[in-house]
Amino acid sequence: MKSNKFYGLRNKGLLKFWKKEPLPLLSAALKEARVKVVDVGARGGAIKELIRFAPFIHYVAVEPEQKARNQLNFEAPWQNVTTVPNALGLAEGKATLHVTKQPGMSSLLLPNPNVVERYPSADAFQVVDRQEVDLTALDKAADQFGFREACFLKLDTQGTELDILKSGHWMLKNFLIGIAVEVSFQEFYQNQPLFSEVDEFLRDNGFRIFELDRALSRRRNLSATLFSKREIIWAHALYLKEPTEIINSSYIKRNCSTEGRHKNLDKDNPHANDCRTKLLQLLLLALAYEYIDFSQEIIRIMIQAEMVTAEFGEKLLFEVESYARRRTFKVWLKLKKFPGKGKTFDIVHKDRKLRFRIK
């Protein structure tokens, strides 16, 4: 099966989810967004939420561990792929990568036995090798490898995520509008910052949490024949900026001139102003992570701010709704297998309503 059919794509990278309903305006908007994504700790492969939008994305994979880097395989038709062999962090120079029995647990930090030994996954943290790697600050690596203008950053580096964020001051201030980061609620690595510290740092930089995909575990002394609730140990968190935060930021204010605001998104206008470009980047991220309400709000704000005409904006909203209908159908089919499927369209979802209950 050819990749252009597998990913539901037409020629020139235009989204097409079924034969009678292509999405030309949405495709043009996403193409104009010039999205560049940086995946730090790319061992596990490309970010799955972004694969459907691969033709609109320049993907930067940062992976310092040589074996994992050699195994990277990007089958989706990404706009471009850049591989970075350096580790990222606050310091500059050489660092030691502690390679663990479970490769995904490898880190520049040493495992903390006092915490690791509490859980069944303790053996996975056993250090089996040590490799010397080049350590570079995020901002410096961005200049060196050409990804300074990236709008989205994914961090999964087993405890050094906050150091990397702090080393990317310029990118955080001027370019990044979305961050996916692994956060921990237990100190699995020595001197590892916990969720509260990462969350505070990102909130102070204008980001708001949208998603917390939790990992929970029982203790190592578990009894398989006895029920016990699991405790939260780590999570994958998604942070995005609000459209108003983007518009009001000092960097954007200097670039959100009224010139060109009433131009439509088509081949005759490839150079949109930075403010609109960032909102289009945010639109792609909202669609990729299936925040449809948020994506529609972004477009309405663009209409209100006169970054697109009302007519064009309404057409774009219609295409987003067409895309959302298709996704709704696919999600509904998957949910048929799971309890609580009837709550799909509830305005508010509460995890506790779907937890195991003893009657």
Itemize the secondary structure elements and their pairings:
Elements: H1 3-6, H2 24-32, E1 35-40, E2 57-62, H3 66-70, E3 80-84, E4 87-88, E5 93-100, H4 113-116, E6 127-136, H5 138-145, E7 152-155, H6 161-166, H7 169-174, E8 178-184, H8 195-204, E9 208-217, E10 231-240, H9 243-248, H10 250-253, H11 274-288, H12 292-304, H13 310-335
Parallel strand pairs: 1-2, 1-7, 2-3, 4-6, 7-8
Antiparallel strand pairs: 5-6, 8-10, 9-10
Helix pairs in contact: 11-12, 12-13
Characterization of the model:
The protein is an alpha/beta fold and 359 residues long. The protein has one domain. Helix content is 32%, strand content 19%. The protein is built from 13 helices and ten strands. It has helices spanning 3-6, 24-32, 66-70, 113-116, 138-145, 161-166, 169-174, 195-204, 243-248, 250-253, 274-288, 292-304, 310-335, and strands at residues 35-40, 57-62, 80-84, 87-88, 93-100, 127-136, 152-155, 178-184, 208-217, 231-240. The strands form two sheets. The protein has a seven-stranded mixed beta sheet with strand order 3-2-1-7-8-10-9. Strands 4-6-5 form a three-stranded mixed beta sheet. The radius of gyration is 22 Å and the shape is globular. The model is unreliable at 1-20, 257-262 and 266-272 (pLDDT under 50).
Describe this protein with a few key phrases.
three-stranded mixed sheet; globular; disordered N terminus; 359 residues; 32% helix; 13 helices; alpha/beta
